[in-house]
Design a protein that fits this description.
By secondary structure, this protein is an all-alpha fold. The chain is about 70% helix and about 0% strand. It is built from 28 helices and no strands. The longest helix has 15 residues, at about 35-50. The N and C termini lie far apart (about 60 Å).
Length: about 450
């Protein structure tokens, strides 16, 4: 690193307070520094030691510094005592966004705009939070209004791509993300979502390249490092996976998912994998994942299954005869069609429920079926999961929150490359909806 860059770093570090622009400048300067994460962690430790209970300008500086190393909860604690200005509010909003506290993030982006932050940028961030928080229709309307106001920009293309992705249109989403990346400047959101979409659809090489762009050109992008680690481990490159995780831990040693994942990576170096069992499980899951539209059914039976949101054989074996016959216009003739179709694959109605009930204690099965169906029926493609966790549940043929809740810890852990960190993530996501994994006796 040249002396001029070192002087510039020292100048930023010596400031009494920081703006978000200072954090971006510092990140660019540190990107050329050897062992930058460790050095910045040391600088942050000195700041914290000098201000035991930071207030005002010092609190904003420490809060932004903690944000840069992905210590979002601790960053919020410092920022809450800081000078109430646009940079503090925008930093708080980003922390809430990365913690998936989207409602709080929306509030803080609004306050940042009221205090002078660029209104268009705050609105773009707000729309992204609405979409990621599940309010896709509201976000879609807001994107149209935003595009009319600002025209075709990187942000408007990115937001349209996000709506397309969350609406199940990956090809359109990728085209819009590429369009956003085509504008002058680097768009981290479009790059990350494009990488994530490529990753989910099997284009690992492109995903790796894009994740590396996120890491090299944007601070606070721990998700890109985590997903890179997943890709490297899946490819058997445990050293590269470990390096990604150590980059996270170098700045934030208390990052629980990175710590657990690193243990999984280290264990993978000596782990024995039963390939025969994996093939049996994959074959079974492949059968359950066959769409019911692949079979010759009457128009009435096909329409009834579609309206009941039964799309695969796996969905069908989790349904009973009584439930089918209770549906309007579904009669004995349609029932015989369905039973014949399942028998050809060695399956029967209610088989999934029978297998589940056999492993559940006492009255737990009845209680589980009585849970709020509106939550259990939420499609998993609307739930934010890491690439590793999503690949695992896809391989198991799980498509809804309820289907995921019907799995046990041993079943999930038996899936190839599904470790303790992924299990913790799944448990956390289910808990957000008041659900939990099936417990064995």
């Amino acid at each position: 690193m040249e002396q001029t860059d070192r002087d510039a770093i020292a100048e930023v570090l010596s400031k009494d307070t920081w703006t978000m622009q200072d954090s971006q400048t510092l990140f660019k300067l540190l990107s050329n520094e050897t062992n930058a994460p460790e050095k910045f962690k040391g600088a942050l430790a000195k700041m914290e030691a000098a201000e035991a209970e930071p207030r005002g300008a010092a609190a904003v500086k420490i809060g932004i510094a903690r944000f840069m190393v992905c210590r979002f909860t601790e960053a919020l604690a410092a920022l809450s005592a800081g000078t109430d200005n646009k940079d503090r509010r925008f930093a708080q909003a980003l922390c809430h966004k990365y913690l998936r506290q989207y409602d709080r993030a929306v509030e803080e982006f609004r306050r940042a705009a009221e205090r002078g932050w660029d209104a268009d940028e705050a609105e773009a961030q707000t729309i992204e939070c609405l979409a990621l928080g599940g309010q896709v229709e509201q976000a879609s309307v807001a994107v149209e209004r935003f595009t009319r106001a600002v025209g075709q920009t990187a942000d408007s293309c990115f937001l349209a791509g996000l709506i397309a992705e969350l609406s199940g249109q990956p090809d359109e989403a990728c085209a819009l993300y590429e369009q956003a990346r085509g504008f002058e400047g680097f768009h981290v959101g479009a790059t990350f979502r494009l990488a994530y979409t490529c990753d989910l659809h099997g284009d690992e090489d492109q995903a790796v390249q894009l994740y590396h762009e996120c890491v090299s050109r944007s601070a606070a992008h721990v998700s890109a490092l985590l997903n890179l680690a997943v890709l490297y481990e899946d490819a058997g490159d445990y050293d590269q996976a470990g390096d990604c995780l150590r980059q996270i831990l170098a700045c934030n040693p208390r990052h629980e998912r990175a710590r657990l994942f690193l243990r999984d990576v280290e264990a993978s170096k000596t782990m024995y994998f039963d390939e025969d069992q994996a093939r049996r499980i994959a074959k079974h899951n492949a059968v359950l994942d066959i769409p019911v539209t692949d079979f010759e059914l009457s128009v009435r039976a096909r329409n009834c299954l579609k309206k009941m949101d039964i799309r695969t054989l796996g969905d069908l074996v989790m349904t009973t005869e009584t439930e089918l016959l209770a549906y309007k216009n579904f009669g004995e003739t349609s029932l015989r069609e369905i039973k014949t179709m399942l028998a050809a694959k060695g399956l029967h109605l209610g088989q999934g429920l029978d297998e589940t009930d056999a492993l559940l204690a006492g009255g737990e099965a009845a209680a589980r079926r009585a849970e709020d169906e509106s939550l259990r029926d939420i499609p998993l493609d609307r739930i934010e999961l890491s690439v590793r966790a999503r690949k695992a549940v896809d391989a198991m043929g799980v498509t809804t929150l309820g289907g995921l809740a019907d799995k046990s810890e041993p079943e999930l852990l038996a899936c190839k490359n599904f470790g303790q960190s992924s299990l913790n993530e799944v448990v956390e996501r289910l808990a957000e909806y008041g659900l939990k994994l099936r417990e064995l006796e």
